[in-house]
Amino acid sequence: MLEKLIEHIKKFLPIAEEDVPVVLSFFQEATVKKKENVQEADKVCKQHYFVTKGCLRMFFVNEKGIEQTTYFALENWWITDYLSFQTGQPAEYTIQAIEPSEVISISAEKQEALLQQFPQMERYFRIIFQRSTAAAQRRLKLLYQLTREELYLAFSKQYPEFVQRIPQYLLASFLGFTPEYLSELRKKMVLKQV
Amino acid sequence: MLEKLIEHIKKFLPIAEEDVPVVLSFFQEATVKKKENVQEADKVCKQHYFVTKGCLRMFFVNEKGIEQTTYFALENWWITDYLSFQTGQPAEYTIQAIEPSEVISISAEKQEALLQQFPQMERYFRIIFQRSTAAAQRRLKLLYQLTREELYLAFSKQYPEFVQRIPQYLLASFLGFTPEYLSELRKKMVLKQV
DNA sequence: CGGATCGTTGATCAACTTCAACGGTCGTGG
DNA sequence: CCACGACCGTTGAAGTTGATCAACGATCCG
Fold first, then answer.
1. Are A104 and A56 contacting, i.e. CB atoms less than 8 angstroms apart?
2. Chain B partners of A63 at a C-beta cutoff of 8 Å?
């Protein structure tokens, strides 16, 4: 399973075979059950997670007590509450598996130690975060320019298999509307196709 | 003016004095007039901008022909259309000065060359992008959890001087609503205070 | 001084939420 | 293996939020 991470790193930079076990020694593996939290809100987020199997979601609980999902992480995606991870403040987000999953993680301290010992890993994380920044810009553009209905269409088109894979109420939350409204949208779309 | 960039880099890592001029030789300076574009939509975004003075905004034009502003960049902030910058595709965003400004910039090619020659700069950009990722998470949380009115209040509270500094229609656009509605919100708030 | 730009106002309208209720399905315990 | 409860998706009515459009005043700047 750790192999998955090495493969991912190798996509972005060369890494000497003899360094592989040393690099990997900074990380730990975990199996996560469905609905299990890897990170609880209000606790400091100590780990940075790399998903090797399954799917995680990140959510916060709003004033009405509703879980608002804002991120999903699939295989080969990094995820964490970066604000808490960086500053050591309590996290605002909970991170939960929505399927039986497998993750690799590294603590903030170990990540820093890894970067000290293997400065070339700065490049790996620089690229990861640069891509994340680009993805955030793209997502924000969609959020600003599309109606909820168009958002649903765009997302369904880009991730058709994923839409099948997750419960509708999570998708509705992620897209920023209610499950009832998603239900209405789906009905409308079926009618149009007939 | 280039001094501002060096100061910023030094906040995150040590840099030998003799390296300073070499590092700086990768960058270029520019003065930008109010309303001048440093980046046009549909052209490939070749530069990564660091603002040393003034303020830039990033926007796209939606289907109704309205300029939708999604980012501001103040002093010591990096900004660009990262998707275009990374992939070489045409940009979706325009980047424009909203005040007379001064920027330092570096092309994608030169940034790569800089990182090859000074690998410690990977750390600098890793930190910049990691913070940017954290900021994006924070912003997304606010967008999902607050009403438009609360967004305006929160933003006014966090950046009171900035709200004074920019035209209201830009602020309304950034917060995701119309200038007319912002006007209504402001009226409502004044009435409450009386 | 004159035109363009910006903020405001009010009426109407569309998008989306809220709430309550119902039916289907899935998983768990007996 | 069945029965029960919890969870999930759906439906429809009523209510909010915020958009749209058109018009007007103020201000800025050349």
1. no
2. 145
Contact A60, A92 (CB under 8 A): yes
Indicate if the pLDDT at residue A80 is higher than 80.
yes
Q: DSSP for B44-81?
A: B--EEEEEEES-EEEEEE-TTS-EEEEEEE-TT-EE--
**Do residues A90 and A96 lie in contact, with contact meaning Cβ atoms separated by under 8 Å?**
no
CB A91 within 8 A of CB A45: yes
pLDDT at B193 over 80: no
As a whole number, mean pLDDT of residues B162-184 equals 95
Residue B189: pLDDT above 90?
no
pLDDT band at B191 (very low <50, low <70, confident <90, very high): low
> Which nucleotides in chain D lie less than 7 Å from some protein C-beta?
8-13, 17-22
Of the candidates B12, B128, B118, which has an alpha carbon nearest to the alpha carbon of residue B78? B128
Cβ within 8 Å, pair B83-A138: yes
Whether the model pTM is above 0.85: yes
Task: Indicate the residue type of B66.
Answer: I
